[in-house]
Write a structure and sequence with these properties.
single chain, 8-stranded parallel β-barrel, 7-stranded antiparallel sheet, 24 helices, about 25% strand
């Protein structure tokens, strides 16, 4: 079969060194045995067994083995065919297991292993089957790892040079088979021939003709090896004007003629068939492939498996998600509706800390040129008084956070930027000392020792500089509070998981140069990644359904490497989106996402603060309807969303952990009560990234997920007391308890009467089922089915 007709191909390699080269086709390097150091232009990556990365078109790269015995699989993806399918030459991917974690990597790895299992069956029917697997791999790459043209670029890094280099590369890639001239390209770029010639030489290290011929030769070599075409035909089909020009260019690179190269390669292939080296390679490949045939990925079938636990085998565990809820500016605590909703959440969900920010306001501060500065703390007092009186603990963010209403991570409905009111070190020292003394005198030292104080790394505080104002501000607040009591906890700096990935090390290294270390480290988690290619940064929505867990693990790896592990690690803000206008926030899918994320995060963080408590947080001119895509647990009118019930269901869980699966958490109190929280959370597909978040409609939601299958869960709890049990099942799905679906049945009418709002509030409640279970053999057996995006809690009580 002519390999040039396939979109992918692969081969095995045991070379200890691969010299610097580049080619137009994309390449995946997959380490099957040993370890290698791969250099892609200025970046170096260390790949161990099981790691793989994708090398984009025309990127200079090389590798060298870092262990004596290596085995690699190299997958080549036909750039031209892929560009034709995608309708663009702008093909750029980010796929690298050494620096990233994403559940899609495991999917892709399974597909790559499927290909390798067919490495001895590339003919006839086997070739057809392989071709189907190739397209499955291409789908995964395009859906989950492609950087699309409309992904947000960080403008300060996207220089004219970056843009021009892309234009040159894409122009040559699209036209290499034609007769190209420097003059044609210069006219396209509105540059002189002389300037463009020097520019290409500077940035590519080659003349224009040398660069074009490199692209042509790459394709020509493939045809020499894998096709029976005549050399003249190969030369003309790949843009060389004559056979002589092809021969000349080929000899400059390969030191032989094309015909000699073809003969040599074919001769070596024939000789190698019986060589010991070939036999050894075959043996190693077969050893790797033994038992590697992957199981088909079928969610519904996978979850049919019975999960067995022992009632007498429990472990202690802690809930990280029920500690903190974000409620916005401290002024919001003076609002009666916010207070009422907060007390409801305290009662039904059990949050103990309320995270507030922007406690310092300009109209409460007087700065005298003589240094006689004054601050009126009465507004702060009223907010904190409410919390303390209701046995809630303040979690105070000390910086000046913006309070934008966000369409997306880079687009706001309105700018509510918050100015820093302290203009020098002395004024901040004075206010922080006064504030610390004030709250100690008002609430008592014992009380504020249980509070948390955080300082977010506002860009204006320049944490990227070891002498930046962030560290001064942090140490000022730290010393002022610690002067009251050394037990008061002060931390920061709100690292953005995934988005700050290129700054983790430098920010932590800067902090290590200072004398004061934080009592806890805080991070934010929204499903956005910052990717870097050739000095250009791209913002991208992540489709990783386990984003919080995976990105937190990567961040903790950096903390360990820098020897900067804190006593406590807090996720002070988390959600899949930062948008306040994404209707998925109001859906059942959001409830399932919360349950899944909470279960996965057990043992990963000490506290998790969901973003955020109430839709009242972002009321604006565009929020007249009962739902408007905000990420609050409660609507403006106090109606409970599926996200609220997710936390409410998790409150049922008991202190003894029996076990957990991908879709469920099993607990017991050790006294005849067994509680199971479960979900059917679905994974986003590529369509989610194709829509602006604010443009998603309720009817679009199901189409944005990989499937809408129901799942069937089976559990068995051994060594339970014989006798009668009663099982209560609480659940929320699109047919029961979903405010969004109730509003859908009301045709999304915006101007509702008070009575209609009250009807919605009464209707948006979980469905409750009950049934008796009799146990006679000390084994409790439970089965349950969940629709797509459904959440459930099964609460089982022994009847005395």
């Amino acid at each position: 079969m002519d390999n040039m007709r396939t979109i992918m191909d692969f081969e095995f390699d045991t070379s200890e060194v691969q010299n610097t080269h580049f080619h137009q086709n994309l390449e995946i390097v997959y380490v099957l045995e040993g370890s290698v150091e791969v250099q892609i232009e200025p970046e170096t990556y260390n790949l161990k067994k099981g790691d793989f990365l994708l090398i984009n078109a025309n990127k200079r790269h090389s590798w060298r083995a870092t262990e004596e015995k290596i085995l690699l699989a190299s997958f080549q993806i036909n750039f031209t065919m892929l560009a034709e399918y995608m309708g663009t030459n702008q093909l750029l991917f980010w796929c690298n297991t050494t620096v990233d974690k994403n559940e899609s990597y495991e999917q892709l790895k399974q597909v790559l292993d499927q290909m390798l299992n067919r490495s001895y069956d590339k003919e006839k029917e086997g070739a057809i089957y392989l071709n189907s697997i190739y397209y499955e791999a291409i789908y995964l790459l395009v859906a989950y790892f492609m950087i699309k043209a409309d992904d947000v670029r960080m403008k300060e890094n996207f220089t004219p040079d970056n843009s021009r280099i892309f234009e040159i590369q894409n122009y040559v890639q699209a036209n290499y088979q034609k007769q190209l001239s420097l003059n044609d390209l210069a006219q396209k770029l509105y540059l002189s021939n002389a300037y463009l010639s020097k520019y290409i030489k500077k940035h590519f290290g080659l003349s224009f003709l040398e660069y074009v011929n490199n692209i042509r030769l790459f394709h020509a070599v493939d045809e020499l090896v894998y096709s029976e075409k005549k050399i003249t035909r190969i030369a003309l089909d790949n843009g060389f004007p004559t056979t002589a020009a092809f021969n000349k260019a080929f000899k400059e690179i390969y030191n032989m003629t094309p015909s000699a190269y073809r003969s040599t390669v074919h001769k070596e292939e024939n000789l190698n068939e019986n060589k010991e080296a070939k036999q050894e390679l075959d043996k190693r490949v077969k050893e790797y492939l033994t038992g590697k045939e992957p199981v088909a990925d079928n969610t519904a079938t996978r979850n049919m498996n019975l999960y067995v636990v022992d009632a007498k085998n429990t472990t202690e565990w802690k809930k990280p998600w029920d500690k903190i809820i974000n409620m916005g500016n401290i002024d919001s605590l003076l609002n009666y509706d916010v207070q009422s909703q907060l007390l409801m959440m305290q009662k039904e969900i059990g949050f103990s800390y309320v995270r507030i920010y922007n406690i310092f306001m300009q109209d409460m501060y007087y700065e005298n040129i003589s240094g006689d500065n004054k601050y009126n703390f009465s507004r702060i007092d009223r907010g904190l008084d409410f919390l303390v009186e209701h046995n809630l603990k303040p979690y105070i963010e000390l910086s000046f956070k913006p309070t934008d209403v966000n369409y997306t991570i880079n687009s706001a409905v309105g700018d509510r930027y918050n100015e820093i009111i302290f203009h020098d070190r002395e004024s901040y020292v004075e206010v922080m000392q006064a504030f610390s003394s004030h709250i100690a005198n008002r609430y008592g030292v014992n009380e504020i020792e249980s509070w948390y104080f955080e300082l977010w790394k506002d860009d204006r505080l320049n944490m990227l500089d070891a002498k930046g104002w962030y560290f001064d501000c942090f140490e000022i607040g730290y010393h002022a509070l610690k002067k009251i009591s050394s037990k008061i906890k002060v931390g920061g700096a709100g690292f953005a998981l995934g988005y700050d990935r290129y700054q983790y090390s430098i920010l932590i290294q800067n902090w290590k140069t200072r004398n004061v270390r934080p009592d806890f480290i805080s991070v934010y988690s929204y499903s956005y990644l910052l990717l870097q290619q050739d000095g250009v940064y791209f913002g991208k929505r992540s489709l990783d359904n386990s984003f919080v867990k995976n990105q937190l693990e990567l961040f903790k790896d950096v903390l360990k490497a820098e020897d900067f592990m804190p006593d406590e690690l807090h996720i002070t803000e988390w959600n899949f989106t930062i948008s306040n206008r994404n209707c998925i926030n109001d859906s059942c899918a959001q409830g399932a996402y919360i349950v899944k994320t909470c279960i996965e995060s057990i043992g990963e963080a000490d506290m998790m603060g969901y973003w955020h408590g109430s839709d009242l947080h972002t009321e604006y001119y565009d929020s007249g309807a009962v739902l408007y895509g905000d990420n609050g647990l409660l609507t403006r009118d106090g109606i409970k969303k599926p996200s609220f019930y997710a936390f409410h269901f998790l409150k049922f869980l008991k202190k003894g952990l029996l076990g957990k699966t991908e879709n469920a958490l099993l607990t017991t109190d050790g006294r005849g009560v067994y509680t199971i929280a479960c979900h059917n959370c679905k994974k986003f597909n590529y369509r989610y990234t194709m829509k602006a978040e604010k443009d998603i409609r309720v009817d679009d939601i199901d189409s944005l997920y990989e499937d809408t299958d129901s799942i069937h869960l089976k559990f068995q709890i051994n060594n339970v007391e014989n006798g009668n049990y009663v099982m209560r099942v609480f659940y929320v799905n699109e047919d029961n308890g979903s405010i969004q679906n109730i509003w859908k049945d009301m045709d999304y009418i915006g101007n509702l009467s008070k009575g209609e709002v009250e009807y919605m509030k009464r209707s948006a409640n979980p469905k409750v089922d009950m049934r008796r279970i009799t146990v006679q053999d000390n084994v409790l057996r439970i089965e349950t089915k969940l629709k797509a995006h459904e959440i459930k809690v099964l609460d089982i009580h022994y009847q005395y």
